[in-house]
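no rush on this but wanted to send it before i forget. theres a chain ive been looking at and ive put its sequence and its fold in token form underneath. i want to understand how the tokens follow from the sequence so walk me through it. thanks a lot i owe you, the record is right below:
>
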Amino acid sequence: MNLDRSGDYETYIVNKSTQAFAAVKKIKPDIIFLDVMMPELDGGGVAALLREDPELSPIPIVFLTAIVSKEEITQMGSQVGGNEYLAKPIKIQEMIDTIERMLGK
């Protein structure tokens, strides 16, 4: 919501992991933020589905997690297994910096 309020970003929220693939296919966002821990299908499962689709696979994905601390993320350089991660709680400026870096702005 804070990204929307900034006036610089248009956001879409999908609260059900099982609906995420269809939403991404329809919206075709510039970047995707995925929570790691979700009921039914976790963030890794959603990302795997997205990466299997040639049209959607180029869209950058950033995982949000409370499993790993900010200190651990900092020590790992914000990437785990080639995936970008942000540790919760996340400040709006962290999200904006990540968006700009990932999209080359």
Notes: Residues 17-27 form the longest helix (11 residues).
